[in-house]
Design brief:
- The chain is of the alpha/beta class.
- It has one domain (7-321): 3-Layer(aba) Sandwich (Rossmann fold), CATH 3.40.50.
- Helices cover 38% and strands 16% of the residues.
- The chain has ten helices and ten strands.
- The protein has helices at 16-27, 42-48, 62-79, 108-134, 155-158, 164-175, 177-184, 209-216, 228-240, 294-306, and strands spanning 7-11, 31-36, 52-56, 83-88, 146-151, 189-196, 247-251, 273-277, 282-285, 320-321.
- The strands form two sheets. It has a seven-stranded parallel β-sheet with strand order 3-2-1-4-5-6-7, sandwiched between helices.
- Helix 1 (16-27) links the parallel strand 1 (7-11) and strand 2 (31-36).
- Residues 262-324 have low confidence and may be disordered.
- Keywords: NADP, Oxidoreductase.
- InterPro entries: KR_dom, NAD(P)-bd_dom_sf, Sc_DH/Rdtase_CS, SDR_fam.
- Pfam families: adh_short (PF00106).
- It comes from Chaetomium thermophilum (strain DSM 1495 / CBS 144.50 / IMI 039719).
């Protein structure tokens, strides 16, 4: 599909893989609706980027998404650039052993937190924008109307310890790719999912040389984290290549993550399990995952979208734990 002159909706677009995707699409002549939390850098980005509108959205809020659809409809009417793609990049990870050594099961609140953003948020965003995409004028001899590009993770296939909820959410995204493609084939809409491994970020720069070397041992070639621009390049190709449909593409340089990784960011090696609360960006001891209140939930999602690290996706919270 030709990118120029089409509008693309990108959630989680204010940072990480989402932002790189937006920049790539804009360079190809697209218009972009940048969806992210009100506390994100979205407003300032929209002012500095061409053909970009910012719409504040919490993907766990159906009403937020409904309002975003109406705003995109109005914007398309003004620009004359029909919807060409839906790209849900918003995501989060909150690590937690399903059962810790004190026999405490992981909290249901933390499971819901991950599933509501990564799975429900993805599905709700896609389903609400699909009627608008299905009304786009067909393009080319095949009559293509657009594409949905979702983000899974290498954790969908080999999740690490503490990633039960995260792997479940990303595995579900991978699993729904083919049936969604089959549902939408009659409308000329394709569905592609990308499953990245670890990608570079501001927070990976904080890791010690020892930790970086440990992570590199799990990598094949290239022996480094992926770059956001490399993810965005694949999104662009997925949009342009009409034969990519109903497929999950791994983007990992042959990396297969081990069952456990030990990482400490400004924390002592003895810390049994670590997470980050965006209230003060300090490590929090978590024998069992703490239930976030509403304020923490938004802040953690915002923080994690800016500083991705071990959980293989652009938008999640770093973690560190010793299961013993």
């Amino acid at each position: 599909m030709k990118i120029e002159g089409r509008t693309f909706v990108v959630s989680g677009g204010a940072s990480g893989l989402g932002l790189a995707t937006i920049q790539s699409l804009l360079s190809a002549g697209a218009s972009v609706a940048l969806l992210d939390l009100p506390s994100s850098q979205g407003p300032s980005l929209a002012q500095s980027l061409p053909r970009t509108i910012f719409i504040p959205v919490d993907v766990t809020s159906t009403s937020d998404i409904t309002a975003a659809v109406e705003k995109v409809k109005s914007w398309i009417a003004e620009t004359g650039h029909p919807l060409g793609g839906i790209i849900p990049c918003a995501g989060v990870g909150l690590p937690g052993l399903i059962l810790d050594k004190k026999l405490n099961p992981v909290s249901l609140e933390s499971i819901d937190f991950v599933l509501n953003i990564n799975l429900r948020g993805t599905l709700d965003l896609v389903r609400q924008f699909l009627p608008l995409l299905a009304k786009a004028p067909p393009e080319g001899k095949d009559g293509e109307r657009g594409v949905v590009v979702m983000v899974a993770s290498a954790a969908a296939f080999e999740g690490q310890m503490g990633q039960v909820a995260y792997a479940a959410s990303k595995g579900a995204v991978a699993s729904m790719t083919l049936p969604m493609a089959r549902d939408l084939s009659r409308f000329g809409i394709r569905v592609v999912t990308i499953a990245p491994s670890m990608f570079d970020s501001a927070m990976t720069a904080m890791l010690s040389d020892k930790v970086k070397e440990g992570l590199r041992k799990a990598m094949e070639f290239p022996a480094r984290p992926g770059q956001p621009e490399e993810f965005a390049s694949l999104v662009k190709h997925a949009v342009e290549n009409i034969m990519l449909n109903g497929v999950v593409i791994r983007l990992d340089g042959a990396t297969r993550m081990p069952s456990e990784v030990y990482v400490s960011v400004n924390a002592t090696p003895s810390s049994r399990m670590m997470g980050f609360c965006a209230d003060n960006v300090q490590p929090i001891d978590q024998d069992a995952i703490y239930p976030c209140n509403a304020k923490q939930r938004h802040l953690v999602a915002d923080l994690s979208s800016r500083f991705p690290i071990l959980i293989p996706h652009s938008n999640q919270v770093t973690h560190n734990y010793d299961p013993n």
